[in-house]
């Protein structure tokens, strides 16, 4: 067997034979199914369990704030049993503390996500993606269990358990789970099918969110028991944990982990040789270690031309602007509809359901079909493997840009619509932009060799999370300040930001994996023809 058969290039999947189905195994054997199929239940369950109690969680926080306020100021008004009465919780002083608490929780979630991306990048590169998923799902279970337990204990113990709930919740968010799922797919799927696979997995997670919104609210309303939805959520989490533990195979092999650790050790040694190994330099390195993934974005130099590659910097700017423009957009649409058009919860729920269903269809059917149909058109007649790689990359960039244009048009149209039919059309347009997130992650993964994909995706997610943390504060402030005068202004601002985020991708001129693309031509010659 020649040595070239063992060689892993930047465009090779990290799993060889495991990326294909094996029909010789029984139908219940994990080895029979491709990795993208095996990870889909994990992604769906993670989303379903996370969002199932979301609306009820807000009620729980309000109850806790209300109880703690009267415990400190007027304990005699606290009922001996049952929830705090609405008339007590509607007091302006309680509402003010509740609003501030929700803002603090949003900020903590953003900070927690930043930390989680860095820690999980290091953890999964050393121990594997599967332990990372188990750790994150375990934190989910701890978070919800702490919240459930807090309702059965005295007030001071309740406060301690709620702090534990917040800390565990902040580092096991939906975006953190999506990051780990992305790593798993990128590890085990070849670049020719990566975009379609990421889109399909994203689609099923959106379906999980659509189901959870309707089921969660219905359970709480009909059962009159706020804890029932949390018990259901923790049950799903436990099943998901067991599935990952016993069914899901590892996607990042021990060989790759050891190779990556060796490369990182060499990088650290080189850096210490350049800066010195005194106490101050070591302390600076320790303080900077949480932000270590961001070093992956540093422009590299083409060894042949001497030019710097700004591709990842452009991707980082795009990720920040896209999340800043999209994170709170739908929330602002619902707030605007409720305040200006007096839409009831049933109507806003209908709008959320419409955009979720359209998003599922776009992600699971439309994006894979568009990639399949348009890829041959982007490919030149007499093309080399290098040309094929670049054509796939161009298509992904154009799909991402087009998705953002749909979202920008949706935002502007929603602010200009004057009736429910117009808002439905606008929200459908928003659903057609759902392909942006997975296709963009495919662009990022194509920018570096497989061993560096985890760190690079972590860096992009860290910067994107800053955008998502700032979005509710900035866009919410604009909506609050203008809702009685020019309520549609926030949607114009939002649309302009998204159009800028889309146009930024025009700046990507470098081909993917530019440094070693020539060395991979021999191994990829037959794959695209």
From TrEMBL:
GO terms for molecular function: transmembrane transporter activity. It comes from the Eukaryota. InterPro entries: MFS, MFS_trans_sf. The chain crosses the membrane at residues 97-120, 132-153, 159-185, 197-216, 228-248, 312-330, 350-374, 460-483, 489-508. Pfam families: MFS_1. Coiled coil: none annotated. One of its GO terms (cellular component) is membrane. Residues 1-20 are annotated as: Disordered. Keywords: Membrane, Transmembrane, Transmembrane helix. It is found in: Membrane. Its main location: membrane. It is a multi-pass membrane protein. SUPFAM superfamilies: MFS general substrate transporter. This is MFS general substrate transporter. It comes from Dendrothele bispora (strain CBS 962.96).
């Amino acid at each position: 067997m020649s040595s070239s058969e063992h060689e892993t290039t930047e465009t090779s999947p990290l799993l060889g034979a495991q990326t294909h189905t094996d029909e010789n195994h029984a139908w219940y054997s994990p080895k029979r199914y491709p990795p993208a199929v095996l990870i889909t239940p994990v992604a769906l369950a993670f989303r379903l369990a996370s969002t199932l109690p979301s609306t009820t969680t807000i009620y729980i926080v309000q109850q806790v704030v209300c109880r703690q306020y009267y415990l400190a100021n007027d304990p005699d008004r606290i009922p001996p049993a049952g929830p705090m009465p609405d008339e007590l919780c509607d007091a302006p002083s309680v509402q003010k503390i509740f609003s501030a608490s929700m803002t603090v929780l949003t900020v903590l979630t953003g900070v927690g996500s930043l930390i989680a991306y860095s820690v999980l990048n290091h953890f999964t590169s050393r121990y594997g993606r599967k332990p990372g998923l188990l750790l994150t799902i375990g934190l989910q279970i701890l978070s919800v269990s702490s919240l459930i337990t807090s309702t059965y204990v005295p007030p001071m113990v309740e406060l301690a358990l709620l702090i534990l709930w917040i800390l565990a919740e902040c580092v096991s968010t939906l975006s953190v789970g999506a990051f780990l799922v992305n790593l798993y797919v990128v590890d085990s799927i070849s670049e020719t099918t990566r975009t379609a696979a990421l889109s399909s997995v994203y689609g099923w997670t959106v379906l999980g969110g659509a189901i959870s919104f309707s089921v969660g609210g219905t359970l709480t309303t009909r059962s009159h028991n706020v804890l029932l939805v949390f018990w259901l959520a923790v049950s799903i989490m436990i099943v998901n944990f067991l599935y990952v533990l016993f069914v899901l195979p590892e996607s990042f092999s021990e060989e790759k982990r050891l190779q990556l650790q060796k490369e990182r050790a060499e990088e650290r040694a080189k850096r210490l040789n350049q800066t010195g190994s005194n106490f101050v330099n070591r302390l600076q390195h320790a303080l900077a270690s949480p932000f270590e993934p961001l070093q992956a974005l540093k422009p590299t130099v083409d060894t042949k031309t001497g030019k710097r590659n700004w591709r990842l910097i452009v991707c980082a700017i795009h990720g920040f602007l896209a999340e800043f423009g999209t994170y709170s957009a739908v929330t602002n649409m619902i707030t605007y509809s409720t305040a200006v058009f007096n839409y009831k919860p049933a109507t806003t729920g209908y709008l959320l359901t419409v955009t979720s269903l359209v998003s599922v269809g776009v992600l699971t059917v439309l994006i894979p079909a568009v990639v399949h149909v348009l890829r041959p058109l982007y490919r030149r007649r007499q093309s080399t493997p290098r040309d094929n790689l670049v054509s796939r990359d161009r298509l992904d960039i154009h799909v991402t840009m087009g998705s953002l244009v749909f979202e920008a048009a949706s935002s502007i149209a929603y602010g200009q619509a004057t009736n429910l039919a117009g808002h439905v059309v606008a929200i459908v347009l928003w659903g057609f932009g759902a392909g942006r997130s997975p296709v963009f992650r495919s662009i990022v993964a194509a920018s570096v060799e497989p061993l560096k994909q985890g760190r690079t995706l972590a860096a992009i997610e860290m910067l994107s999370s800053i955008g998502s943390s700032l979005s509710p504060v900035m866009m919410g402030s604009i909506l609050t300040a203008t809702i009685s005068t020019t309520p549609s202004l926030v949607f114009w601002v939002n649309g302009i930001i998204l159009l800028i985020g889309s146009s930024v991708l025009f700046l990507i001129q470098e081909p993917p994996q530019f440094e070693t693309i020539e060395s991979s031509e021999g191994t990829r010659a037959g794959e695209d023809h």
